[in-house]
Amino acid sequence: MSSSPRAVLFDLDGTLADTIEDLGGAFNSVLASRGYPIHPIDQYKTKVGNGFITLTQKALPPEAAADQSLVEAVNAEAEELYSKHFLDLTRPFPEVPKLLTALRERNIILAVLSNKPDRMVGVIVHALFPGTTFFITEGNKPFMPHKPDPSAALAIVAASGIPASDWVFVGDSGVDMKTGRAAGMLPLGAAWGYRSRQEMTEGGAAGLLETPMDLLKYFNCAK
Fold first, then answer.
1. Which residues partner with 7 through β-bridges?
2. Which residues contact 31 (CB under 8 A, 6 or more apart)?
3. What is the pTM of this model?
4. pLDDT band at residue 49, thresholds of 50, 70 and 90?
5. Which domains does the chain have, with CATH numbers?
6. Number of C-alpha atoms within 13 angstroms, CB side, residue 67?
7. Which residues contact 67 (CB under 8 A, 6 or more apart)?
8. How far apart are CA 125 and CA 114, in angstroms?
């Protein structure tokens, strides 16, 4: 790792933004419409992070989740409903806008990599952080494997021209920590997010951030 990072790759859900009410609400609406049990919204915090298909499988009862055609149908309905409501209640986590401003003032490159569908990620990020310039905002694409596979992260590194060793990966899950480590970045866990400290530590976190502004401690130019 370089003495001071030059770029930060952020996860979205549970790291930059609290998206769980809109996401869980969409899935609960679809589940209820099909006669399946719904879940307390907070339970979705342990279901998200591995892409929409996996989320659908976790949301459905086990017997229904075993039917791949049903999973795909429910997933399509939930994704379509969510795409119409993903900014209803979603908000940045406290201090995140302040952190992004501080990083940009230090000429740090910012990027976002999420496992949610690509068509949603840029819209959400730019709506929540309209004054912040991101080098790239990327979600899951059909030809690219989900995190923790590092392929998408490494593609962002290659496009930036900045070595992976000069990047920090900030996320709130073990999946994110594994992704950052596999990509050769410094993986830091967002303790304000959806997953446990234990999960992030076991995933390979090099450190845990208590608040967003704690990230500045990793930069030599921190003020």
1. 109, 167
2. 37, 38, 39, 59, 60, 74
3. 0.94
4. confident
5. 7-18+90-218 (3.40.50.1000), 20-83 (1.10.150)
6. 9
7. none
8. 11
CB atoms within 10 A of CB 109: 21
Percentage helix, strand, coil, to 5, in the chain? 45, 15, 35
Q: Provide the residue type at 43 as one letter.
A: Q
Please determine, for residue 223, whether its predicted confidence score (pLDDT) is greater than 50. Answer: no
Q: How far apart are CA 56 and CA 81, in angstroms?
A: 13
Q: How far is CA 111 from CA 23, 87, 170, 180, in A?
A: 22, 20, 10, 13
The contacts of residue 111 (CB under 8 Å, 6+ apart) are: 7, 8, 9, 10, 134, 135, 136, 137, 138, 156, 160
Radius of gyration of the chain (CA): 17
| Residues noted as catalytic | 11
DSSP string of 38-86, one letter each residue? P--GGGGGGT-SS-HHHHHHHHS-HHHHT-HHHHHHHHHHHHHHHHTTT
Q: What confidence tier does 54 reach under pLDDT thresholds 50, 70, 90? A: very high
Task: Estimate to the nearest angstrom the gap between the alpha carbon of 91 and the chain centroid.
Answer: 14
